[in-house]
Amino acid sequence: MTEKLRLPAEETYAAEIAALSRDEGSRPKGWIMTPRSAVTYLMGGKAQDGTPVSAKYVGDRRLMETAVSTLMTDRGLLLLGVPGTAKSWVSEHLAAAISGNSTQVIQGTAGTDENQVRYGWNYAQLIAHGPSHDALVPTPLMRAMKSGNICRIEELTRMGSDVQDTLITVLSEKMMPIPELNDSVYAERGFNIIATANNRDKGVNDLSDALKRRFNVVILPLPAGIEDEVSIIVKRVGEMATSLDLPTPRNVADEVRRVVTIFRELRSGATEDRRQTLKSTSGGLSTAEAIGVMVSGISQSTYFNDGQLDAASIGGSMLGAIVKDPVQDRVTLDEYLESVLRNRRGYEGYYAALSGRA
């Protein structure tokens, strides 16, 4: 029997959720913990019985308070930001903290159609007996309405505008009509929608004004300071390495700092000390990409470099993250290497690995 590669948040952090669920205080109907406890679950702290709670989000506490407060109302929550700002991560943990179930998910893509949002049909049953409740195939949205849980919709703006607008009735009336059966599904208390969208996606479909009015938007920023970004990445890399049975090298924090410094400078178009302006790359070089680069580097160092984590084992993945456009980004990187990294102490290995001189 194989182990699961990844468990949902409510299973991974079951002990913390159980402890916070025992906290005293008023809670909205259908919630498994108080709003204050939900914020503690996200930001870290202690449950009332003293159980330590790890931080799931490193950033402005007010943003999480606003997000939790929104889900207590009749409006949906839209988490907006550039790629890599932990939108999906926050969405999952909000659903786990509020409903104890983060698995009611619809993944938005250009191919997502209305049947994947509202409901589908078992065509064998449909042909044999016609439209009936037995032939109905509920979507995660319909199941969340019936159970009074949170439904997560990832990459909302990737879906076509006509599909997006199927949510208007659900958000405003808290019901989903089923005209084929002359019936409707009404949402139980505790139901709401958390949607995510990023504002750099080249396949974005703008939300209609009618749909925008039914969401409260919370913008998740990139980490403001390098220390916050480094701490986020070190924590997530450690967790992912453990889940993949990879050893965490002692120097991981040092290498994370070097990778983050390079990413931030190429992302912002200036060196960290702001003394030199630079060209920016076409990609976002987000925190999520830095996490992926580091995990890949640890894997390579474990199996091909005798466990030694260095620029040589990280450089290949790092180059792939930076050079999205083989012409423009390659020129930008080469100029950065020669004007900044070549003479920077402690970065000699990265200069060699990224320039092909390793």
List the helices and strands and how they pair.
Layout: H1 9-12, H2 14-21, H3 35-43, E1 45-46, E2 52-53, H4 61-70, E3 76-81, H5 87-99, E4 105-107, H6 114-117, E5 119-121, H7 123-129, E6 136-138, H8 140-147, E7 150-154, H9 161-164, H10 167-173, E8 175-178, E9 183-186, E10 192-198, H11 209-212, E11 215-219, H12 226-243, H13 252-268, H14 287-304, H15 311-322, H16 328-341, H17 348-355
Parallel strand pairs: 3-10, 3-11, 4-7, 7-10
Antiparallel strand pairs: 1-2, 5-6, 8-9
In whole angstroms, how far apart are the ends? 42 Å
Number of strands: 11
Radius of gyration: 23 Å
Global morphology? globular
The assigned CATH architecture of the largest domain is 3-Layer(aba) Sandwich
Number of domain units? 2
Number of helices: 17
Brief digest:
With 358 residues, the protein is α/β, with parallel strands linked by helices.
Describe this structure in words.
The protein has 17 helices and eleven strands. Helix 12 (226-243) crosses helix 13 (252-268). It starts with 8 loop residues before the first helix and ends with a helix. The longest helix is centred in the middle third of the chain and has 18 residues, at 226-243. It has a five-stranded parallel sheet. It folds into two domains: 9-219, Rossmann fold (3-Layer(aba) Sandwich), CATH 3.40.50; 226-355. 38% of the residues are buried. The chain is an alpha/beta fold and 358 residues long. 46% of the residues lie in helices and 12% in strands.
